[in-house]
Amino acid sequence: MIRQIPQQLPHLAAEDLSMFGRDPWWLILIKAVFCFAFLMVTVLFSIVWERKVVAWMQLRIGPNRHGPWGMLQSLADGIKLMLKEDLVVKRADKVVYVLAPIVAAIPAFMAIAVIPFGPAGNEVSIFGQRTAMQLTDLPIAILYILAVASVGFYGIVLAGWSSGSTYPLLGGLRSAAQLISYEIAMGLAFAAVFLYSGSMSTSAIVAAQEDRWFAVLLPVSFLIYIVSMVGETNRLPFDMPESEGDLVGGFNTEYSSIKFAMFMLAEYVNMVTVSSVAITLFLGGWRAPYPISAFWEGANHGWWPLLWFTLKVQLLLFVFIWIRGSLPRVRYDQLMKLGWKVLIPVSAVWVMLVATVRALRNENYDFQDIVLYVGGAVVALLLLSFVYDVFRERGGKAGEAAEAEGPPPVFDPMAGGFPVPPLPGQTLPPVPRRRPRHDGELIVSGPAHTESDGKEADGV
What number of CA atoms fall less than 13 Å from residue 90's CA on the CB side? Predict the structure, then answer.
């Protein structure tokens, strides 16, 4: 199926990865160091930028002491964390406790290896050697990114378990549930891109967006991925694994010094990585935006693609910061409901529609016929959903009428041996109130519900 798509769609070229793997060892080392430096510099800038943007949104000053305009604040924070005392709690599993930050940080750097910063051809010259602006590429590069991102979550889960404390354990369990919930929706969003591009190679996917970005052709997949990437990185409003409001600090509560810094580094590196994946799959990758590419032929050649890629990364990082400064943290049940009841069903239906369109295009159907078929299927689904809602509403009203005929059940908050709050539709029994009399005795206002209340009411 995938091999037939490039033959029938002339604007999609078959993936050619022969230019990778031919660079000398020293050039591979330089490109690997550049990928690491790109992530580190972007993280250092993003931490300061986040603090300044959130301060601007909240009418505060923000960092302005370390370096010009406070731009060295993140570097000062890193030095401070490295010089702090490194504590290890007694009840911790020390081997896993030490390895957890490393497991969380290292996979965050690995995904950048298959992200293209420029065209796949030999576009730039480094010390006289022509090479591509990408460390390497794979026929299944996107699957490699998904696998590496999944390994990073083991660090959070192991950190919560090995700390030997309640709150970190709850944070680790939340992280595992969140990964399962949003990884499925993210994979389905990727599937639509695979169907449209005919490849899982990152360079081939960017090449397929020469005429139009996939964010325009596949807007539902793009929006689902944007929500999923916020959930994948544990950022507000989905920072359940480390919500300081109810878990103190979550999975990293018992960590300090450099180990805490590695968790913080992994979070921001993951932000850069998922932003780079969003750019590669949906926003044209290293290609210049439309007005620039239309009027300047050299915008996508030489070193210029690196500039466009960096600007797009900073734009998506600003979206992360904007969401953090605008939305409150959701409840955990809302997080699970959004993942399982909204994102996954919508992603599955959308992938079916995209697959139908691709199959009809491969059979040389006219575009108007495709619109009629797909539109008819969507209308049929909406009608079925409407009929189901009507019958469910009638059944709910009948159940409410049957409940209204009988007496409401009495709610006992102490039925289980400990007090519990009432559920929707239940009310607490009236609480007896006592008010002091002028002569020092107590008068019970309301019925005597307990034996002690009756004795006090009788003056005993």
Answer: 0
Question: pLDDT of 39-71, one tens digit each?
Answer: 999 999 999 989 999 999 888 888 888 888 888
Is residue 396 in a domain?
no
Asked if 81 contacts 260 with a C-beta cutoff of 8 angstroms, the reply is yes
pLDDT of residue 325: 86
Range of the domain at 300: 8-347
**Number of helices and strands (H, E) in the chain?**
16, 4
CA 203 – CA 77 distance, rounded (Å): 37
Reduced DSSP (H G I as helix, E B as strand, rest coil) percent helix, strand, coil of the chain, to 5: 65, 5, 35
Token readout for 63 is 């960092």
Dihedral angle, C-alpha 77, 81, 83, 84, nearest 10 °: 130
Q: Is residue 450 part of a domain?
A: no
pLDDT tens digits along 145-176: 988 888 888 888 888 888 888 888 888 888 88
Type of residue numbered 241:
P
Look at residue 65 in the predicted model and tell me its pLDDT: 87
Beta bridge partner(s), residue 125:
130
What percent of the chain clears pLDDT 70, i.e. is strictly above it?
Answer: 84
Cβ atoms 272, 317 nearer than 8 A: yes
Looking up tokens 């960096």, which residue turns up? Answer: 310
pLDDT at 9: 41
Are the CB atoms for 192 and 354 separated by under 8 Å?
yes
Q: What is the mean pLDDT of the chain?
A: 80
* Number of domains forming the structure of the chain: 1
Q: Which long-range contacts (CB under 8 A, 24 or more apart) does 317-321 make?
A: 317/42, 317/46, 317/49, 317/50, 317/271, 317/272, 317/275, 318/49, 318/53, 319/226, 320/50, 320/230, 320/233, 320/235, 320/271, 320/275, 321/49, 321/50, 321/53, 321/54
pLDDT of 115: 92
The DSSP element (H or E) to which 319 belongs, if any, is helix 304-326
Letter string b/e over residues 174-204, b meaning 16 or more CB atoms within 10 A of that residue's CB? bbebbbebbbbbbbbbbbbbbbbbbbbbbbb
Q: Does the global pTM surpass 0.70?
A: yes
In a domain, 24, yes or no: yes
Establish if 336 belongs to a structural domain.
Answer: yes
